[in-house]
Design a protein that fits this description.
mainly beta; 29% strand; 2 domains; three-stranded antiparallel β-sheet; extended; 10 strands; 11% helix
Length: 160
């Protein structure tokens, strides 16, 4: 679902795997499989407007045996393993299925519609929207410096 408006138009817009949109009534019986905006962690893919939207996402996995030639490349399935926040946008937020088991420092290869590819490294702050908000709220906030901080002796860099 790309848009949900239960108040004004009482419709929801569903996006098909091929990119076509289908508008349905909010009262229609729809089974929610996942809510990526809340349940899936996300990354920010670099914006590449001239390259077009991301069409394929692949993941190099741990090195295979010498017989297999090293790395094994796994193509992730759109709308099952990954979901762009806006399918027609050339980059931006990409939600990733937590079942993939991605960790910080893993990387993905994003192929754009013009055939060019860009790499995406999973950041250390990788998580869902709620996890990131909780981490930000739990981190200690430094006391703001004022004009009187040095005069009151609270400045650790004060010359003695």
């Amino acid at each position: 679902m790309t848009r949900y408006d239960p108040k004004r138009t009482k419709t929801a817009t569903l996006r098909e795997a091929d990119g076509t949109a289908l508008e349905v009534s909010c009262d229609a019986p729809v089974t929610v499989i996942a809510n990526p905006g809340q349940d899936w962690p996300f990354i920010a893919a670099p914006l590449k407007p001239k390259w077009g939207p991301i069409v394929t996402l692949t993941r190099p996995t741990s090195p295979g045996t010498v017989a297999t030639g090293g790395m094994v490349i796994v193509t992730l399935t759109l709308y099952q393993d990954w979901l762009p926040s806006e399918p027609s946008r050339a980059g931006g937020s990409i939600f990733l299925n937590p079942a993939l088991g991605l960790q910080a420092a893993d990387y993905l290869l994003a192929t754009h519609s013009n055939g060019r590819a860009s790499s995406i490294v999973i950041p250390g702050h990788f998580g869902t929207v709620y996890q990131r908000q909780a981490r930000a709220a739990a981190s200690p906030k430094p006391d703001p410096r004022t004009a009187y901080t040095r005069l009151l002796g609270d400045d650790p860099f004060e010359d003695d």
